[in-house]
Predict the 3D structure of the following.
Amino acid sequence: MTRWVISKPALLALVGLFGVAALVYAAQTFNRKAESSISIAMGGKGGVDQWTIMDSKFHLLNVSTEKPMLLQERLEVTRRRGIEGELGKLEVTAWGAGKEPFDKKLWVIQDQGVFGGTAWGTFYISSNYGCCGAMDIHRAYDLKNGKYAFSYTEDPIRAQVYAESLNTKDTAHLTRYISFISVWAGEGYDYEKEFPQGVGELTLYDYEEGTVSDHLIVLYESEQGTGWEPLSLSKIVFVNPNAEKGENYVGVTCVFKGPRSKEAIKGCVKGFSVTLDFDGWKVVLPVEGDRFDLKNASVSHGLTLKRIPVRPAPAQGAGGTRGG
């Protein structure tokens, strides 16, 4: 059991800074335990045929705010002798404060990832290794509500837009993530039959609304005709990133007319472009009005872009199945 001892001067300082509520939390302690285990199946002639490791751990988030969050992670991974890859079962439960610290269940993620963790302070990422030469696949779940957001094989890039009204004092801070799934992904890319020449899918994700703003398939028509191999994405970056934060981040400012509205806000998601580099074949794609601007895109010979509807999010627990 973990206990904190607070001296009288420190206690008075807490009350001075945070009021009477500090007395309540200073006097409270919180304890929770979780077990880990291993199960081993031995072979008839010695050696190990199969083993399963169940690991439990905790992550404490938002510790500097009034609403800290506790993530309880339970990961079960099974391996079999002679078979490449792993089978994963991941469950993440988020707890927040109710009547007592961390007694209120906020949401649960169930996925078949073989490892996981938080990223960018906004998502929980469940991942699977790519089997047999395939690429690793990662699935992002929103920490606000545990809902599936998007998948990717390359690290997403992030745009932040500060919007303000020309006529009123209305403002908005907007965040967009741009993610790419390669056709080489071990799982999660589901367009091989529909688009045989596809090399991957590109998603523009609205973080505030928790929805996909736009969704494209990148196609490659090889001059060799049949027997071609899909291109592999080597880089996804912003054309004019903010230098101090690297090429995976851009920040822009926008002024809109009239009061704040959904249409005005979406109209402000503009003023930046994305470069996709497929080992020399390139796509330079502007964003205008919270959508990819296909009309003004620059595309290397052989590549084409096609806007397609967004498919429903995968069912909970229907993520990865095995990795390498």
